[in-house]
Amino acid sequence: MLFRTMTAMALVLGATTAQAEGPELVINGEIPITTRAPAPEHMEYVREVMSGWEFRSPETQAFEADDFENPGMIFAEDGRTAFSQPLGDTDQSCASCHESPETLAGARAVYPKWDPEREEVQTIEMQINECITERAGAEAWGYTSQPMTNMSALLASVSRGMPVNVAIDGPAHDTWLQGKEIYYTRYGQLELSCANCHEDNYGNMIRADHLSQGQINGFPTYRLKNAKLNSVHDRFKGCVRDTRAETFSPGSPEFIALELYVASRGNGLSVEGPAVRN
Amino acid sequence: LVLAPISAPAAPAPSDVVYDEYGSVAESLTGAAGDPVKGADVMANRGLGNCVACHLVSDLDEVPFHGEVGPALDGVADRWTEADLRGIVANAKMVFPGTIMPAFYKNEGYTRPGDAFTGNAADGPLDPLLTAEQVEDVVAYLMTLKE
């Protein structure tokens, strides 16, 4: 009883302090990260958007302040090695066409993005596979495979600090609307939507978990719980599964649409991946 | 000569439960009183009601991590009748339209129902989240929460 009263008080106090000033994330002492921003205009029920970082314990938060402490950066470094290695049995690598990962800085912030040639919204994983298959002529990487997630961590890392800014108008608008519908649909036998947990209840505890806004600006995320790098669609899959629903598959049209919509809810937050979460 | 039935009458199918206009259910789903000790276990158990995921129950203090998505259930029997509580547990949406609280005695009308927490499609008709007996056990336990 005493224990819980104290926990409850700590939570209340924690919430108040976070509201008042809020801790600040600066990576390596040089990349300031916007972890709170005014909500984008399209959001009706939320006034301020917050990175998942805001909801984690000070110990977990600290991992992200220094690349030598951030286990996710080990995977980004693996991605950097792969960047200049031949793709499949071709003689091409990412570096043959993109001088360095840094030349792709800014890409992460605007994906998912409409591809006018394919006439579809593409996630960064789809763009990477387009380069691998159509440009280099090698075999596609699995959507949530290790090489893919490492490469997406690398591309996120070179965009850190840039504001997420995905386009939701023009040709991408229909896909965005589809994603929005999925976000508010109550799936599974527990009849829960993303919004039930991440819009109506962020800041609340659901059993041992402190609910965040379910933002994806920090992806891919290194989770201390499973000690690996987790892709956006893997996280979506886990959340849908937890409603006792039949999930969608990583790379499916539904998750692509949902990713565009969820990304747009974070417009204005900084790209933060690879972030560290519990 | 007609012999009295030996077994208890079968519980109504979820779709046959009678809710009044406020969402209360007057009749016990099993025709008998529930067991509050078992009810407490259903409330705490992750694989059963997992009610503490969303609710604080001070009486279940030995169970770690109570959530704060729903109101604390301390003193809930002072606020609601047994029939109300049965309705809330069986299908809270009848009492609080649009509530996040799942319906525990319902087994159809879902979007993409899964096979428990596997992420796969449900394999045939679903059982309700709790049996009629477990619902009654939970109601019996909630009725002990007086201040």
Automatic annotation (TrEMBL), chain A:
Residues the record lists as binding heme c 2? C194, C197, H198, C239
Which positions carry the signal peptide feature in this UniProt record? 1-20
Q: Name one GO cellular component term.
A: cytochrome complex
Q: Cofactor note, please?
A: Binds 2 heme groups per subunit.
Q: Where in the cell is it found?
A: Periplasm
> Per the UniProt record, which EC number(s) apply here?
2.8.5.2
Q: Where is the Cytochrome c domain?
A: 74-227
**Which residues are annotated as active site?**
C239 (cysteine persulfide intermediate)
Residue sites binding heme c 1 per the record: C94, C97, H98, C131
| Reported cofactor(s) | heme
Annotated protein name in UniProt: SoxAX cytochrome complex subunit A
What is the protein's species of origin?
Palleronia pelagia
